[in-house]
Amino acid sequence: MLDLTGKVAIVTGAGSVGPGWGNGKATAVLFARQGAKVFAIDNTPAAVEETIAIIRGEGGEAEARICDVTSSAEFSAAVEACVARFGQLDIMVNNVGGSHPGGAEGMAEEVWERQIDFNLRSAFLGCKFALPHLRRRPGSAIVNLASIAALRMSADRPHVAYSASKHGVIALSKSVAVENARAGVRCNTVVPGLMHTPLVEHRLVRQLGANDAAALIAKRNAQVPTGKMGDAWDVAHAVLFLASDEARYVTGTELIVDGGISAAMP
Amino acid sequence: MFELSGKVVFLTGCGSQAEGWGNGKCIAVLFARQGATIYGVDLNEAAAAETRAIIEEEGGTCVDVVGDVTVAAQVDALVADCMARFGRIDVLVNNVGAPAPGDPATMVEALWDAQIEVNLKSAFLCCKAVLPIMEAQGTGAVVSIASTAGIRHTGKPQAGYAAAKAGLIQFSRVVAIDYARRGVRLNCVLPGLMNTPLVQKVARQFASENTGMDLEAFINRRHNQVPMGHMGDGWDVAHAALFLASDEAKYITATEILVDGGLCAAVRG
Q1: Which residues of B are catalytic?
Q2: pTM of the predicted structure, to 2 decimals
Q3: What is the pLDDT of residues B138-151, one digit of tens each?
């Protein structure tokens, strides 16, 4: 089930920003466990090397690539390097992203632009550079990562550019999906809700201090209808399903992984 | 991955209405292959027995029972029978459903009621009987097979079917929130245009009634409506249902997976 043997996958943001399991790291390791060769992209050498070491330690095959996915030249070269190394590309996971707090009035224009670059332009470039290779492979797929921040808004913690860019990722995916449906390339989006990942912990502790971070984590758990945030493996399994041949008729849609939060009113 | 060993699945509509692989039959066989014990209900005795025979031939476990899940007393008896045999229900799959033409001006009231009963009330009755069992277990997953007809016009008048399927989607979402802290997840699969035995039957009906189109032309038109260029099949639906039923989907509740080849993402050509 969900066998990826013989497939080559690129995962961007495949390193974790802190100890533990981020979405990209969990996805890369899970893909390798399912038999895929993983080309792991990250902008932090130590982080991606850790992911690679885990995969190789488990007997899997993976290559690391340091790359800034907001740079067209670097990203394009990374995708070509993947195909040069493994001979093909079957799955593209555009996982890079991160939020910057702020509402429309207070956000500096440069921050807005960096957020759009980081969250949306990176996914566009991933699709752009991967598609020519994906079209050559049967059963190929793109999975993009959005966020429920695209669908539901927090009154006390707005992140206007993040919400806009992640909503853009959903539309990007649908458009790529419909355009490439007959060419045999599927494209879908995973929409995670409140997750307990290193990115959250790392950033919150930095922004708020450890005690306040613990309080915020408790508050976030309470916000979720299930009573608990999800983790990186929840996201990774959704990405895996959408990337797999078992999802061969699933395209142009979103899979929400949020413990029900987007279905409930505040 | 997607291991269901030791789990008991209560599945409605486990037989196929005609030769071939319908959603329910695929779900039954796939879930049994993953190790689940299947308690399969169907109106049609022969169809249910065929599904059981396939599962048994593959070495799986399946009990097939004839029943009408639009009738509360029958649902209660079926659920009690399943509990008496296996002692638990881990997964409920609300798969029964059937479309009918539906222009409110011409649709008789009895047909409207029948559409709501088979497509929506059946899921309510099964949840009513099964949710307390899952709550007592502290764990359970409900997967309801809705339809893209619940969120889009399908190209033909089906007011009762569309309203019932839309109702099923929102029913599943709100009950999911109510049960989120009790360990029970509820989700829907929304199949688009599928080439299943039921659809072949409906297509034959629509083709002859409305368009004068022959069956092959009708089927080809349906293939071409889909961005991927072809209809899906029962296995596509079954794999999505399996993911939602599995422990790997533990953080997924109150939502839907569309299995439609991009149909709902596209605008009319």
Answers
A1: 161
A2: 0.95
A3: 999 999 999 999 99
